[in-house]
Amino acid sequence: MHANRILAAALAALGAVTAIPIPLAQLDFAGLFNAFDIDHGDAPRALLVMAAVGGCLTCVVIGAALAGACLALRGAPAARPVLLAAALAGFVTAMPLWPPTGIVLGAAVLALESAAGTVRST
Questions:
Q1: Does pLDDT of 120 surpass 80?
Q2: Sequence spans of domains, the chain
Q3: Euclidean distance between CA atoms 22 and 70, whole angstroms
Q4: Cα–Cα distances in Å, from 61 out to 7, 14, 56?
Q5: Are 12 and 105 in contact (CB under 8 A)?
Q6: Cα–Cα distance between 48 and 28 in angstroms, integer?
Q7: Is the separation of the CB atoms in 114 and 42 below 8 Å?
Q8: Of 70, 69, 74, nearest to 109 (Cα)?
């Protein structure tokens, strides 16, 4: 097993696991459950719906990142596009809190490219 594949899988799993509080906070703000005791106050109903939808979609993105980590560990060629899509989709679903996770997932993509020998030098 190539060391970069293990590194990429570990980075992807780390990024996905550290992002778990993001949808929890979104769903807590929406009032679906009480994880962090966030009070939405007098927020408009449309904002609460957007937070709930964003939280659900962020859960899906985290699931995709974990699937990408599993694919990276197996050495599947689909791992890079899955991880890249998860990194970019997270910016859509949870922009203010996603950049650290997106950077870690991007590093996993770069590690996979290095493992495959497709990194181009300029």
A1: no
A2: 3-20+52-116
A3: 21
A4: 20, 14, 9
A5: yes
A6: 10
A7: no
A8: 69
What pLDDT, on the 0 to 100 scale, is given for residue 2? 82
pLDDT reading at 106 higher than 80: yes
3-state secondary structure at position 85: helix
**Which pLDDT band, with edges at 50, 70 and 90, does 117 fall under?**
low
Q: How far apart are CA 80 and CA 111, in angstroms?
A: 9
Per-residue pLDDT band at 80 (split at 50, 70, 90): very high
What percent of the chain clears pLDDT 90, i.e. is strictly above it? 76
Q: What share of the chain is helix, strand, coil (3-state, %, to 5)?
A: 75, 0, 25
* Inter-residue contact 83 to 68 (CB < 8 Å): yes
Among residues 81, 108, 102, the alpha carbon closest in space to that of 4 is found at 108
Question: For residue 97, which phi and psi values (nearest 5 degrees)?
Answer: -110, -5
How much is the pTM?
Answer: 0.88
